[in-house]
Write a structure and sequence with these properties.
By secondary structure, the protein is α+β, with helices and mostly antiparallel strands. The protein folds into 2 domains: 172 residues, no CATH class; 134 residues, no CATH class. Helix content is 35%, strand content 25%. Helix 1 runs antiparallel to helix 2 and helix 10 packs across helix 11. The radius of gyration is 24 Å and the shape is elongated. The relative contact order is 0.11.
C-alpha cells in the first residue's frame, strides 16, 4: 500500500528541496548512486525512494580558466558580456594577449522517484545532476573572429581540446517536482493531462505505478513577458530499449494480438503499446487504427476499459 506524503503540501515541498540540495552537496560522486538514494530516503521516511534512471551525454556551457587552471570566471556568458560591454571587437582586443580556456560541464542526471498515491501523477520526481567541469577549447584563435557575443560564447565550428578535468566532479540538486501539481497546472497542456488520465482509466493502472515505468522530461522556458514556465514530456524507463513497431510490421488479427501482448510483456505492464505509440514515432499510429478495425470486427483481445480509450483516441487522435 502506498503511503501519502505530508510533503505534498507546497510549503513542505519547498523545505524538502532545500534539505535535498544540502544533502547532495555533502555527498561524494565516487560513492555512486546508493548514497544519493539513502540521503533522500532519510528526508522522505514515509515513502519508498527509488533510483529510476540516469541520463547522460549532455553538457552545458562552463566558465573560463587560464593556462595554469586558475579560475577567471564561473559563467562564460556573463563574463563575456561584462568584459565586452556588448562590443565583440572590444572583447577580442582584450583577449589578444592572454591565453584563456573555455570550459564545459559534462553532465549526467539521476532521476529518483517516490510514489505518493494510487493515481498516475501521485509521485515526487527528484533530479540530481552529476557534473564534471572539463577543458573545452581555447577562448580565441588568430584565424577566428566571432560574429557576435553569442558566437564567441558557443561557437558551432571551433577546434575542441581533449576534455581534461578542471576540479573534482560534484553533485548538484536540479529540481523536485510534484507530478500531480505539474499535470494539474496550465503549463501541462491538454495532451499531457489526457495522457495521465488515459493511464488512470486503462489496465496499465493495475501495474505497480506510473513512476515505475515513466518519468517526466522537464524543460524550463520563459514566455514573451519573461514569466517562467515548465514544459514536460513522458519518457519511458526502459533499460533494454523500446521495441519498434513501424508501419511495415503492423499485422492484423491473431498476429496483431500477439504483437501487442509481446510488446506489453517486454515493457512489463498491460496496454504499454498504446502509451508508447503516443510518445515514440517508432511505434506507428497505424497500430491503433489496425487494432480498432480488428475490434470492430470479429476479434476481441482488449479489456473493455482499454477499448474505450482506444475508441476515444480513434475519434480524436493525439500524441506527445
Amino acid at each position: 500500500m502506498v503511503k501519502t506524503a505530508s510533503t505534498q503540501q507546497p510549503a513542505l515541498v519547498a523545505g524538502l528541496e532545500l534539505r535535498v540540495a544540502q544533502a547532495c552537496q555533502a555527498l561524494e560522486v565516487a560513492d555512486g548512486i546508493e548514497p544519493i538514494v539513502a540521503a533522500i530516503q532519510d528526508e522522505l521516511p514515509d515513502l519508498e525512494v527509488r533510483h529510476a534512471m540516469t541520463r547522460s551525454g549532455w553538457h552545458r556551457l562552463g566558465g573560463v580558466v587560464d593556462l595554469d587552471g586558475n579560475r577567471i570566471a564561473h559563467h562564460i556568458t556573463e563574463w563575456a558580456e561584462a568584459e565586452s560591454g556588448g562590443d565583440i571587437d572590444e572583447l577580442m582586443l582584450k583577449l589578444s594577449d592572454v591565453q584563456y580556456f573555455a570550459t564545459r560541464l559534462n553532465g549526467r542526471t539521476h532521476y529518483l522517484v517516490a510514489q505518493t498515491g494510487p493515481q498516475a501523477a501521485d509521485y515526487i520526481q527528484i533530479e540530481v545532476e552529476q557534473l564534471q567541469e572539463v577543458l573545452d577549447r581555447t577562448i580565441s584563435d588568430p584565424d577566428w573572429f566571432p560574429d557576435s557575443i553569442a558566437d564567441f560564447v558557443d561557437p558551432i565550428d571551433f577546434p575542441r581540446l581533449e576534455h581534461e578535468p578542471v576540479g573534482a566532479p560534484r553533485l548538484l540538486f536540479r529540481r523536485l517536482i510534484r507530478a500531480a501539481d505539474l499535470v494539474a497546472s496550465p503549463d501541462a497542456g491538454p495532451k499531457l493531462t489526457r495522457f495521465f488520465d488515459d493511464w488512470d482509466r486503462s489496465s496499465a493502472a493495475e501495474s505497480e505505478g506510473f513512476c515505475h515505468h515513466w518519468l517526466l522530461s522537464v524543460r524550463e522556458y520563459q514566455d514573451r513577458d519573461g514569466d517562467g514556465h515548465l514544459s514536460a514530456k513522458p519518457v519511458p524507463i526502459a533499460p533494454a530499449g523500446v521495441p519498434e513497431l513501424p508501419d511495415s510490421e503492423v499485422a492484423r488479427g491473431v498476429n496483431l494480438a500477439n504483437q501487442l501482448h509481446g510488446f506489453d510483456r517486454e515493457m512489463g505492464y498491460p496496454f504499454a503499446w498504446y502509451f508508447h505509440m503516443l510518445t515514440n514515432r517508432k511505434v506507428s499510429h497505424k497500430l491503433a487504427e489496425a487494432v480498432h478495425a480488428d475490434l470492430m470486427g470479429a476479434y476481441d483481445y482488449l479489456p473493455a476499459r482499454d477499448l474505450k480509450i482506444l475508441r476515444e483516441w480513434y475519434q480524436a487522435p493525439y500524441g506527445l
